[in-house]
Amino acid sequence: MKTQLPEQGPLEIPRFWRTLEERIETPEAQRAAQDEFLPGAVPAYDDVHGLPPQDGFSRRDFFGLVGAAAALAATVACDRKGQGTIVPYTKRPVEVVPGVANFYASSYQEGRRVYPVLVKTREGRPIHIMGNDEHPGVKGKTSPRAMADVLRLYDPDRLRAPLSEGRTLGWTEAESQLRSALVNAKGAGRPVLLLSGALVSPTRKALLADLKKALPTLEHLAIEPASGDAAEVAAQASYGQAVTLQPRLAKADLILSLGADFLNGEDPEALAAWGAKRRLKSAQESLNRLWVFEGPMTLTGTNADVRVPVAPSRLGAVAFALAKDLASKGLGLPANVDLSSVSAGVPAELKDSAKLWSNLVQDLRRAGRKAVVLCGTQMPAEVQQAAHLLNAMLGSEAVTIQAAEPLASVKDLEAASKAMAEGRYATVIFWDVNPAYTYPKAAAWKAAVAKVPFRVWIGQVPDETGAQCQLLLPENHWLESWGDFTTPGADVLQQPTIGTLYDTRQGEDVLLEAVKVLGGQAATSYHAYLQERWQRSLPAANSFEQALHDGVVKTVSKEVLPAFKGASVAAAAKRAAASKAEGLELVLFPGFATFDGRHANNSWLQETPDPITKMTWDNPVSVSVQDAQALGIQEGDLVQVSLDGTTLTLPAVIQPGQAKGVLALALGYGRTTGGVAKGIGANAFPLTGLDPASANVRQGVRLAKTGGKKELSRTQSHHRMEGRDIVRSLTPSEYAEHPQGHHHAPEPASLYDEQLFPGHKWGMVIDLAACTGCSACVVACQSENNVAVVGPEQVARGREMHWIRIDRYYEGELENPKVVHQPMLCQHCDSAPCENVCPVNATNHSPDGLNQMAYNRCVGTRYCANNCPYKVRRFNFLEYTAYKTEPGILVNNPEVTVRPRGVMEKCSFCVQRINDVKIRAKGEGRAILDGEITTACMAGCPADAIVFGDLNNPKSKVFQQVANRRAYRVLEELGVKPAITYLADLKNPAIEGGHHAS
Amino acid sequence: MHRFDRAFRFVLPVAAVAVLATILTVGWFTQPDRFAKGYAPEQPIPFSHELHAGTLRMQCQYCHSGVDRSRHAGIPSVDLCMGCHKVTRTDRPAIQKLTQVANSGEPLPWQRVHTLPDHVFFDHRPHVNAGIACQSCHGEVQTMKVLTREMGLRMGSCLGCHRDPHAALPPGSKITKGAEHCAACHR
To answer: Which residue of B has its CA nearest to A122?
Structure first.
């Protein structure tokens, strides 16, 4: 893949483009558009492995066919006797009917965020995760990583029994080792260090308090390497305590993001509110507006109405200038705020766009309390403080500030590392944390840890930290554990949905045991401990069983909100003014797939394309278009990123829209342990800084080409649909003024008889205005439909198997393009081109409008894929799944066939769910209700951008949405009559040609 | 001997016989119901449907209770058997074996008699709810001492009935046809 950037921009550009190659129209890109499969995808023309192009019948094909014929004959003639066994339950659990799914409420913690979820189980196996609809915030939605975490339960790399110095031992022996270490430490009065993740659980907090009582020398550090230390520093400065900020976008008419990526799928509540605000039914409704100032291109930036690339080091200056400008225009400053060091007027970064600046100031003043300023937790502390100040000035209603348990910063870890090196601690316990990987100076850390006489590790998959510990205690997955959490608006419970798969215990039970041996009073198990606490605190009318059933107990926050401390501003404003962009600036952010590395062993997430770069299985460094041009860097070039004596060699991708002088790199890759994670990408933690105020934004980075190249496992150039009218984006005024301009084209005549759908006709509407590109649907579909993972080499050849993909289109200039995301899946065309060309009739139409795919009939000619204008058919080039054994196969949905090699597959509209609802409704003698059938992507979409239903039912939501004036069908001019209608994207720019908020 | 005589007299007839034999052998091997029908494996417990469903007139759904709630009719759990057999016929060796299984909690692997390929997602619910008798597919189970497969359970068996379900349906049923599209069973 060669992407030589042009010296000057091309004169004429296609309106929307997906890749730089496409935009620049390289010959490779033009050739790639011609073929269904990438070069090398089809083995007969294998130029990847140096085989000569073959025509006619090769020796290899001959033997292949002979083998296949022999296998076929053997299969046909084989004895079908011995059909296997059926093993019923010996004692059937009352709630289990084999073949019927049960749902349990539980919850999942990631960093400080808690996801209340429903877990779908079949015959006692958790197979699918969705949001808990009882929770007032998330309302049935959850994040892609929470959904994918069901796979971690069945991770074959999990530690299955306690391990001591490489020797497997029983829990009794393991506990006695731990006991003697703790008792000795207590006796000698020597400190014990416990490192764990964020404390969001009240019962876990109580347990740690008990442990502290029993072991007064205990020191506890809660670390979350991806949470952004700068957010902690800023919160301490602005509010004098640790806080979490929850945006309430439902109340926001105007959002200003300062490098905040609140639409990246992590926050289902924000996405739901965003979706609700963007799904306009008519042009009369008003649209909110999102301003984004950011360095790297984030998912939030792609959804911006106005996006301004600004280096993160200069964001603070911009934000304080905004505060000063607003104050000068009459917006009151909180007490003790001193902005005298801030120069008045338009900041230097925006000198060329003074109009934009005045628009922003005007917008903020007009929206007032209905405006909110959000700042990314990775941004320098002064930027976050500026955001706090702006929200206080605006009196924003659209963000709630809640007190939180403080987190240890990288400074605290540095201190701990020093203390360990000096021999302060008798014992160190690592509980579900991996500082040997996440700490910036890993070598120093490891040397310090080695000085601690007894090192204990509690976790699931042995990791870099575990490698250094004498005692490894295997922990339950959260789907096997008890727990509880505090979330805004509700307390939530976590309950096991399966017995422990291996000889594991939950970390809390290990600590509870420690409390007991140290002479403290404690319950028999953490379950009992938790239940006892809950029964004390639950209102009399509520039973613990009911709370478990619902998973949530709604709470009314009685806490006094922390007040903003104005005095902290002056210093922050000075820091912001002094912060200069020196050389290249590197932004380190948690990986979309990996977070802080904890998900690196999850192949579903590794293979989900990054929503922006569309990279899988790697973390390339994103370089801005300008820098790439200046340094002569092409896509896939191996580059060296060096800072403070640390050098990483990794591939570069050129990111349109990234601010000049900014590099972006995802954390959480480059693990050295784990069957999936090992060796994927490069570890960027060594590049994070030791100054908590700006640990994730580093200056003075050097970038150099090595001369090498790496093949990128990137999906954005796959399955392209050439330069046709595929995505549409409107401004509100275009929406209002051109009702016909974006409406259905006249239907072309067809040679085929019209399909009739007397009963139901299933269809879907996807609202591009609500879709943020977060890829939750991709993960939901993967989990529901047993979609195979193929690995980086196969992805590079265009063989990824996702049934739904998110196409990301750019529009306009390279330096700051507009972006539209479009989920693309089988369109279930009424006159489907794939159906006509199938020689064995394996794909054809059902009377309810589904384009069906009968795997057992498919012989793998791939004609259908070749004839599909939407490029949504996926072929099993190799045996991706069928060879798998337990525990990997336990995650499979038993309602969906596992497809073998040589078979074509594609989106089925979750036909298993349709059939199930149909049969149940029929059994109950009633009609199917609208909204009763949810496809996995629809249920997973936090923004409710996807609606599925019966197009023959005039009362259905899909029927009504099809009538929206934004509605269009992709490639309608081909006459294939797709069953999916898209609603055009809406952008609400503030400047000329745009619509001014009414 | 003419140089073709040998070919006509020997090679051709032998070849013809060989071809015919191949066709017949393959045809016999591949006949759909050759192994399916009459399959009656030995079960770990010699359970008699004739006794339970026939003589005692127990309802099928008493044991196969999933049939109207789930895709699978289900095989009764051992504790269901023990509901009666804690006290009934405890002198029989088979019941003693059953008791031992129930007490130990070991799994009881019954030999599967009726089976469908993995890519077929047959659902009992609509069939039972439409009033189709179990015997339509499973044969006269209430007369079988050893459960025996009566139907080949090939796609033809399904489609034959779906195209003309008249005979299997109870009198007065409004149903005239079953689903014939692929996704009804394959997904």
So the answer is: B70
